[in-house]
């Protein structure tokens, strides 16, 4: 499929929709005020840890969406580049999960600093981009 204006318009509309969804998610998460700061409250996990993480991963996926839309065509089969996903995706996923690993006690507090949370957010976006950019086209020959 050739890159044309409609491809870019679709990609940017999806980016805007996911951006709006992220705004709603972060407003929803920011309004959470736990009564007793019980980390084992499932509502805490969902609102403060899981929803923002999913939102950032979706945002990263939307950044790479334009390249995916240009790969789609009539005689094209999409395949996942598992080597790229394993080499780049797994480490970025592990860094993305730092907050969750900390809350569950898998890593200790001396690894966690304010910069680590920012790094975690950036790697969540990167992980979403790696997922989308790992999809490659495979030409179908008849």
TrEMBL record:
Keywords, A to Z, come to:
Membrane, Transmembrane, Transmembrane helix
* Listed transmembrane segments: 7-25, 45-65, 85-111, 117-135
Query: What is the designated name of this protein?
Result: Uncharacterized protein
Q: Which organism was this protein described from?
A: Vallitalea guaymasensis
